[in-house]
Sequence to fold (553 residues):
Amino acid sequence: MNFFSSTNRSQLKNHLINSEFDLLIIGGGATGAGIALDAASRGMKTALIDKQDFAAGTSSRSTKLIHGGLRYLKQLEIALVREVGRERAIVHRLAPHLVVSEKMLLPLIEGGTYGKYATSLGLMVYDVLAGVESVDQRIMLSKETTLEKEPLLKEDILEGAGLYAEYRTDDARLTLEVLKTASLYDAAAINYVEALDFIYENDRVVGAECKDLISGESFSIRATQVVSAAGPWVDELRTLNKSMSNKRLHLTKGVHIVIPHEKFPANQSIYFDVSDGRMIFAIPRGKVTYVGTTDTDYHDEKENPVTNKEDVEYLINAVNNIFPTVNLTIDDVVSSWAGLRPLIHEEGKSASELSRKDELFISETKLISIAGGKLTGYRKMAERVVDTVAKRLSKKKNTHYKKVFTQDITISGGGFETPHDVEVYKQNVLEQLAPHGFDHHDAAYLVHNYGQQTDTIINYFFDQKKLNQEGMLRSELWFGINFEMVNSTMDFFSRRTGRLYFDIGSVKMYQDIAIEYLSTELNWNQERIDQEIKWVKQAITLASEFPPSESNV
Ligand code: FAD
Fold:
């Protein structure tokens, strides 16, 4: 049975209720998804629940880079840079349509964070640690060449630039595709199911009391081992488990803003200095450029962190300082998102100084919690967790589990031999769709979102009557319901397609059609339809309106 179809939700729930799992994972962000794939592929009977949509926490709110974290080099986090640096190439190989090579320009400016020689040396060390192939290794550019690459940069303070290799992705889609791949190994993953409490036997955690937040039904899931990969909520579950220690999470908020490309026509990705000593990214993507991030301590509610006016002004000022002809104002910002970094608290350190390393907490009742880390390192983090779980299970069940092999498991939608094959496939998609009014942006959107699954969507598109943008939207919705567990309108517009951030106009234009389509397919009553209308409105407001922060009201 295809458990990733929203139409099979009750069968999936029955399976969760009636089975005894080896492993239950709480949290369907990048970390939980990585653990699910690793565990299921090693032969463990695996279940995963998320109280929101998959990736609705931090894993849809990052800078969307698969990167080694150049700034961690400055903090001398050598092991972290090496690990995530090397992971980049692996994840790129496993999903080349979704993890795309992206050259990053690091402008050198008067009084900037890095001087010319430190930058050259730093980027070289970065390349060596990450094992970057020689053709892709950093090059240093003169002032003139830098301006050719990015004419918007402020000429009088520019001294040159470094150009180095990174990768860009869509965090939510990566999370989802990893989970879908896990389901091919029989992992049972479900969204909108919350763990409310743990079940104990002989002083050990053996499952969770859960609630289906769609139907309101309560049930329990039993498992020999339980892992909490609850990101910013990890401490809530540790509190429930009565296992909070001196080590605790320290949440910091990071905001990104989205600007139409014609208003901020960045030629390429840039990592540039801000006057307070921090650095931020500007990344062109389709018809927009996005800019981020901020890094401020956070103590508010975790489901819907807000982009404040002050966050937007900080990012706008940073852009206007180094790209003086762009002249951004708050009215140019069409969308935004705010995410929470689940970092490990260190006494006396500020938000930006905290380490991005991951850490395992193991409670007396044997709950394993994992926090910290980066999207880029999800596979290695999963390996560490699943090694621990395998050791325990082997003892208990007298079985032997395979070693990790997720480095060789193609992520669903992948299956391209080389990045060139992705381009050929994209061209083929364009040729099929161009006669119906689609352009290269549409082809790139489909292929970078869905990879080779675009074939399934296009076949459906040609089988229905509307061979236009609306027909394509309906085809994507059909795919989302039947293969990607879309259970709400914003699952589709945010986590499945990124439209809320990168094409918010299409959300406003197509919200009624999407709600009507989903309500028919998922049998929503009028009350649910009204709720969905409200949720879409709220999501658009949250992304595009920026209230002053409370301390300034
Ligand atoms: P989450 O994605 O938050 O997942 C936790 C999940 O647990 C949530 O979906 C939540 O709903 C669920 N949950 C919580 N409690 C319960 C419960 N009781 N029952 C059921 N489910 C529950 N990393 C990079 O590699 N590259 C970047 O460019 C990058 N940029 C970043 C920029 C920002 C602004 C931020 C904030 C982070 C960035 N990161 C980046 C870090 C990266 O995004 C995170 O490390 C990663 O997404 C964390 O994933 P996670 O699965 O641990 O947490």
Residues 91 and 216 are 37 Å apart (CA to CA). The longest strand covers residues 249-260. The longest helix spans residues 378-397.
